[in-house]
Design brief:
heterodimer, A: about 300 residues, mainly alpha, 13 helices, B: about 230 residues, alpha/beta, Glycerol-3-phosphate (1)-acyltransferase, seven-stranded mixed beta sheet, 7 strands
């Protein structure tokens, strides 16, 4: 217990709790009782509690939490996509990539971590699909599987690797601080884009994919995220304000793209949400969609400039 | 059911079945409050997988677990370890699928209803093509005509046929859902109208979920294939 309270993440997390408390007060006073936004806010509290607990417990707990998210997101992905009966065996094999990828994170084996899914997992799964021998719909099935693995396992695992990334100069709250930084910015950006979009309205960016995502929301969200990045950087990262703001902007762009990417997939499938695990949000994938592109980008920028 | 077997049943569901379903099937239940709170009652569902019975029983509160009686095909579960488990741990009522009149075959099920138990029945009669609803058989009509006052609750199960379909030993983790419907309104229906009415009731529940279909089948032929 004493160790948990001595964590350098305690105060940053307390600040996030304060932020959510303020947001909750705003939601409760401005929206009707029992509405979707209130359910969504309640779910945010559960998410924040779980994330805080994992971060305070340390790297291993954080890695396991991200691994569990990958598992749930991957399961959700192939559950909403029409699969062929022949794909079941290949999908069962694909699940094994999750423990392997996160074991590579756990051991900090960057060389193999960086290539395992796109090179080796894809090769083994392609071979398995060929051995199963069903050629009708082969391209579509392979593309679906590879995409699901890349987005939900490979890309997301970069968030976990931040926890064990060797740095050239020490970060004030260690690798977990960097993980929290990227996670907080991307999730905050989602909310900020939603709020600015609701407040200002205006034309949508890609109306056929996601009519709710407006230019005003995107720009307001990106500016807010850059501002939050500047404020949070001294607590969690070795960055001075300019690179922190730039990182915030880039994460906002990547977060937006991941979000609309999953929207396009859901629209193609004719579903609104990818699942119903998180009341008010939809499925796990609906919450993680923006991270699928932003996690690797945040990781690579941090590693390029500050990695040892 | 002996006290020890009842305890074993509760432990198996609490410590094995329910955690397994939570971790590997992420089972989501809509309208759990519509499940019968006491027997006698009839629970019907579409049948795609051996997991279906376990899922329906896992949905019930533990205190009602020992009152649940799944109806199972006698030819499948008369012998072997699976048969022993089905007969003793799940308390399955074995019903012959061939060579008896429906009334004679369903007599032990009617007895269970009279004893105030909750009968779980898959009116399709077999697991059939996974994730596709096939025609309902007559057995359910016998029950409805014999005990018209017993509430009949339809349930739609989705995803289990992807997870563990017929003729497969390979289990795949899949997001699964169960939708519980309101008690079926069957008063005044002719016996031959009962199976199609129930089939419609189950299929209507399916439309409240995003469809789950196989890539081999055209978009509109899966869960709504029956009309």
């Amino acid at each position: 217990m004493a160790e948990l309270l001595a964590s350098p993440l305690l105060w940053p997390l307390a600040a996030v709790w304060g932020l959510l408390l303020a947001a909750t007060a705003a939601v409760v006073t401005t929206t009707r009782r029992g509405g979707e936004l209130q359910a969504r806010t309640r779910t945010w509290w559960w998410i924040l509690a779980l994330v805080s607990l994992a971060l305070l417990l340390g790297e291993k707990a954080a890695i396991l939490l991200v691994a569990a998210c990958s598992y749930l997101a991957f399961r959700e992905f192939h559950s909403i996509v029409p699969i062929r009966r022949a794909d079941r065996a290949v999908l069962a094999l694909a699940y094994l990539a999750i423990p392997v990828q996160y074991w590579l994170v756990w051991t900090g084996w960057y060389g193999l971590f960086a290539v395992f899914v796109p090179v080796y997992a894809v090769a083994v799964l392609a071979a398995a699909a060929v051995l199963v021998g069903e050629t009708r719909g082969f391209i579509r099935a392979s593309a679906t599987l590879v995409w699901a693995l890349l987005l939900t396992v490979y890309n997301l695992s970069h968030l976990a690797f931040l926890a064990v990334l060797p740095l050239a100069e020490p970060a004030p709250a260690g690798g977990l601080g960097l993980l929290l930084f990227v996670l907080l910015l991307v999730q905050f950006n989602d909310v900020a884009q939603f709020v600015w979009g609701r407040l200002l309205g205006g034309p949508a960016i890609v109306p056929r994919v996601s009519p709710g995502k407006t230019w005003a929301g995107f720009l307001g969200g990106a500016a807010s995220t850059a501002a939050l990045a500047t404020l949070a950087a001294p607590w969690l990262t070795p960055f001075v304000w300019a690179p922190a703001a730039a990182l915030g902007l880039l994460l906002a762009v990547a977060g937006f793209l991941g979000d609309v990417l999953l929207s396009a997939i859901k629209r193609d499938l004719g579903v609104k949400d990818s699942g119903s695990t998180l009341p008010g949000h939809g499925g796990v994938l609906d919450r993680l969609d923006s991270l699928t592109l932003a996690a690797p980008l945040g990781f690579h920028l941090i590693r390029w400039f500050y990695g040892a | 059911m002996s006290r020890w077997l009842r305890l074993l049943q509760i432990l198996v569901f609490l410590l094995l079945v329910r955690p397994f379903l939570a971790v590997f099937l992420g089972l989501r239940v809509r309208h759990r409050e519509r499940l019968p709170a006491a027997g006698p009652a009839i629970l019907i569902a579409n049948h795609n997988s051996h997991l279906d019975t376990l899922v329906l029983m896992a949905l019930m509160p533990l205190r009602l677990l020992s009152r649940c009686r799944p109806v199972a095909a006698a030819d499948h579960f008369r012998s072997g370890p699976a048969g022993w488990l089905a007969r003793n741990l799940l308390r399955a009522i074995l019903v012959p699928r061939y060579g008896r009149t429906p009334a004679a075959a369903m007599a032990p099920v009617v007895q269970a209803l009279d004893a105030g138990e909750i009968v779980i029945l898959f009116p399709e009669g077999s697991r059939g093509t996974p994730e596709v609803l096939s025609a309902f058989k007559r057995g359910v009509t016998e029950l409805v005509c014999a005990r018209p006052a017993v509430p009949l609750v339809p349930v739609w199960l989705q995803g289990l046929g992807r997870s563990l379909p017929k003729a497969s030993l390979l289990f795949l983790p899949v997001d699964c859902s169960a939708v519980v419907g309101p008690p079926a309104e069957l008063a005044g229906l002719a016996p031959e109208a009962v199976p199609p009415a129930l089939q419609t009731a189950v299929a209507t529940l399916a439309t409240t979920l995003p469809p789950s279909r196989w890539a081999e089948e055209p978009a509109d032929s899966s869960t709504r294939a029956l009309d």
